[in-house]
Amino acid sequence: MKRYISDLWKKRDFNNNWQTKSADLQKQSEFADFAKEIITTNKTILGKVLKYYVEDIVITDMWANVLKPGEMHPPHTHSNNFLSGVWYLESDGNAGIFFKDPRSVADIIVPRKSVANTDNSNLISFVSTTNRAIIFPAWFQHWVPINHSKKNRISISWNIQIKGQLGEHHEFQSANF
């Protein structure tokens, strides 16, 4: 996978905040095993952790990112998907990922903190270490701060959509994809 991404990066036609031109790496033979692992892991999270009944899921998009020293990626979400994820193929711990509580009123009243932690904060971050994967709701706003490293940060990102019935017919709020 790393060689495939490196070859594409060498052929790039622009030099800033590079991403693969197409978001279909899951269809490339070099990524077949990785795509299967993503499906398995995301199904486990949906079923065993979140306790959703899910008929099936599909990777809608998968792409590579190369973040050079001094570059960043602005705040964004991943519309039209249920889960998103990132796996760090190569990183030295710089330019991790930040998430912000999307509730606009979450910080109207903020008590003083005896200890700051993830339970009393509206911002959370994760270090980007090689071979670490982070899976999150696609609606969760996130961004990558400036890469202060002297090395490129290489990652693979993906989006997941649920297939089959969503919601309950008797609640008049269902859909089938």
From TrEMBL:
Pfam families: 2OG-FeII_Oxy_5 (PF13759)
Organism lineage string: unclassified sequences, metagenomes, ecological metagenomes
InterPro entries, per the entry: CHP02466
Native species: marine metagenome
Annotated protein name in UniProt: Prolyl 4-hydroxylase alpha subunit Fe(2+) 2OG dioxygenase domain-containing protein
